[in-house]
């Protein structure tokens, strides 16, 4: 096998997602410990904001700015290059998470055994399912009392509308938690609440009918495990890697991240089954990772909030070919060649200068304002990668310049913040007013704060009563012209110049849909 192909097949790029507090940070940290990327617990900074205040958020971002390495965590495990892409912990920044999910090849979803499927679990798995991203579930906190395992499997299947395939099964929980039976490897993994992972007792156990089971876990637990496994084997499909890779079944593991229990089983299975870098769809064609010409897209921009270091880092996911330092690449939107003398990669929690990178890798490019989210780099071919849509925001406000002397700074600041994907901006065509759309309240405060501290501009918000912003399109130009004329007052453009219908109420949206059947109303910018 050529060096290129063997490098490609070594890559596993994924994200860990969860409802806040389910244990994402803890699990990430334990995985990094296994990979030797960090030596001590506590090295991974939680990026979640306990109090939803802007100063709290800024402080966390400032700390993260110092060690940008938390955005992508790379490590080697069993000769594979594992890239974990970090996602924001705060739900007001969901859209950042959605975009990160476009840059991964699979996901691990963490669920708290007591809380089951929560609001964010639903939203995030839905985004994975839109793209058929293979998912593995990790049910966490088995050292605490929680929901019954079977109830939980039902809940996951029903609420998330997918098929699960348990690969491990808990033996008791909370005080009575004895460990898990790993059905994937036919092993009993026994929990020692006071021990370390190295002391985790693993017993190969092919035949659950053997009386030895009683010796290890006691009579009642043995009885229960045998009957549980019998039910599992009749009700749930046997594991099949193709179905997992097609997103048709989702393996489930049980464990306790904080106790480092069940984490190694998860990782060992993950490296065996998780996909190598997958093809990516561009508007023009499908791009395969085996292709030798470099292509990639920017899915995240990280602004350094330290005013002394105003550079930004654009994160490029490599889709095909080998990326090389100091080589010229075509920036498709700007129609210009760029080369990068200092691309960085994030290995072993340290930033390192990178000479080359392969599909699945994420490269950090220093940027002085040339990149927007969704931008494509290639060796010349005209490609536009799809799958980085904007989602219809949930909260809206007019934004106005509050300092007439600083109009230029205000406009530049807003434009750059929108390029970073902090929020979305719509310009209403009838009166030219700018409307900011966000997922949560916190983003408005962040914009205001960053305009002041980074751009020396001031903004003021005004209430606007809006229910949804939908992207509109039509095959029939006459129908579109009529719609635009009749609904003049409600038409805006997003920052890409795409047409958007601003609906004040659900009823207005519904009647518009009924009255204009030739118009397609989309809730994401990619339809
Ligand atoms: P998140 O990134 O998904 O938001 O969750 P995080 O890992 O920060 O974990 C949330 C809380 O759950 C933390 O407690 C963490 O210690 C705890 N936790 C994680 N895994 C387990 C587990 O297997 N069992 C139990 N019992 N708890 C677990 P915290 O009190 O919020 O923070 P900390 O001060 O303990 O770090």
Distance between the termini: 40 Å
Looking at the structure, what is the overall shape?
globular
- The CATH class of the largest domain: Alpha Beta
At the fold tier of CATH, the topology name of the largest domain is Rossmann fold
Question: Which terms would index this structure?
Answer:
globular; Rossmann fold; 3 domains; single chain; 8-stranded antiparallel sheet; Alpha-Beta Plaits; 28% strand; alpha+beta; 527 residues; binds guanosine-5',3'-tetraphosphate; 7-stranded mixed sheet
Provide structural commentary.
This protein has 14 helices and 31 strands. The chain folds into three domains: 3-175 and 238-273, Rossmann fold; 299-378, P-loop containing nucleotide triphosphate hydrolases (Rossmann fold, 3-Layer(aba) Sandwich); 389-526, Peptide chain release factor 3, domain III (Alpha-Beta Plaits). The chain starts with a helix and ends in a 5-residue tail after the last strand. β29 (491-493) and β30 (499-503) form a beta hairpin. Residues 48-52 and 65-70 have low confidence and may be disordered. 28% of the residues lie in helices and 28% in strands. The strands form seven sheets. An eight-stranded antiparallel beta sheet has the order 27-24-26-25-29-30-28-31. The chain has a seven-stranded mixed beta sheet with strand order 2-3-1-4-5-11-6, sandwiched between helices. By secondary structure, it is of the alpha+beta class. The structure holds guanosine-5',3'-tetraphosphate. Residues 18, 20-26, 46, 48, 89, 140-141, 143-144, 256-259 line the site of guanosine-5',3'-tetraphosphate.
């Amino acid at each position: 096998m050529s060096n290129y192909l063997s490098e490609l097949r070594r890559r596993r790029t994924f994200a860990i997602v969860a409802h806040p507090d389910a244990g994402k940070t803890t699990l990430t940290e334990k995985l990094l410990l296994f990979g030797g990327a960090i030596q001590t617990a506590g090295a991974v900074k939680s990026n979640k904001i306990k109090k939803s205040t802007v100063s709290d958020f800024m402080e966390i971002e400032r700390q993260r700015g110092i060690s940008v390495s938390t955005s992508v965590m790379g490590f080697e495990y069993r000769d594979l290059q594992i890239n974990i892409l970090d996602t924001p912990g705060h739900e007001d920044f969901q859209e950042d998470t959605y975009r990160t999910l476009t840059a991964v090849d699979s996901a691990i979803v963490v669920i708290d055994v007591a809380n089951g499927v929560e609001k964010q679990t639903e939203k995030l798995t839905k985004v994975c399912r839109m793209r058929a991203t293979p998912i593995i579930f990790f049910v966490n906190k088995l050292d605490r009392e929680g929901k019954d395992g079977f109830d939980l499997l039902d809940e996951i299947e029903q609420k998330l509308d997918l098929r699960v395939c348990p690969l491990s099964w808990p033996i008791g929980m909370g005080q009575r938690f004895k460990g898990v039976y790993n059905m994937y490897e036919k092993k009993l993994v026994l929990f020692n609440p006071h021990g370390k992972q190295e002391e985790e007792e693993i017993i190969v156990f092919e035949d659950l009918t053997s009386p030895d089971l009683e010796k290890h876990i006691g009579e009642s637990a043995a009885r229960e495990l045998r009957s549980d496994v019998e039910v599992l084997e009749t009700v749930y499909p046997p594991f099949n890697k193709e179905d997992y890779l097609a997103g048709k079944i989702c393996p489930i593991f049980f464990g306790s991240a904080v106790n480092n229990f069940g984490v190694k089983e998860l990782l060992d299975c993950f490296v065996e089954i998780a996909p190598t870098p997958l093809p990516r769809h561009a508007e023009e064609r499908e791009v395969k990772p085996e292709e030798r010409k470099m292509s990639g897209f920017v899915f995240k921009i990280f602004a350094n909030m330290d005013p002394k270091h105003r550079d930004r880092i654009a994160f490029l996911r490599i889709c095909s070919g080998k990326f090389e330092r100091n080589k010229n690449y075509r920036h498709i939107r700007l129609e210009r060649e760029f080369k990068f003398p200092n691309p960085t990669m994030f290995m072993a929690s340290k930033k390192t200068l990178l000479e080359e990178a392969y599909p699945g890798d994420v490269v950090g490019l220093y940027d002085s304002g040339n990149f927007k989210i969704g931008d494509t780099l290639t060796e010349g071919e005209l490609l536009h990668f799809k799958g980085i849509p904007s989602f219809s925001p949930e909260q809206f406000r007019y934004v106005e310049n509050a300092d007439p002397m600083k109009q230029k700074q205000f406009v530049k600041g807003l434009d750059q913040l929108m390029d970073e994907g902090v929020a979305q901006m719509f310009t209403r065509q009838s009166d030219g007013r700018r409307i900011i759309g966000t997922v949560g309240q916190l983003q408005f405060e962040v914009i205001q704060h960053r305009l002041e501290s980074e751009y020396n501009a001031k903004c003021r918000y005004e209430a606007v009563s809006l229910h949804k912003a939908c992207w509109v399109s039509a095959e029939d130009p006459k129908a579109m012209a009529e719609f635009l004329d009749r609904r003049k007052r409600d038409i805006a453009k997003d920052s890409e110049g795409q047409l958007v219908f601003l609906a004040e109420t659900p009823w207005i949206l519904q009647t518009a849909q009924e009255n204009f059947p030739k118009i397609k109303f989309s809730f994401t910018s990619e339809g």
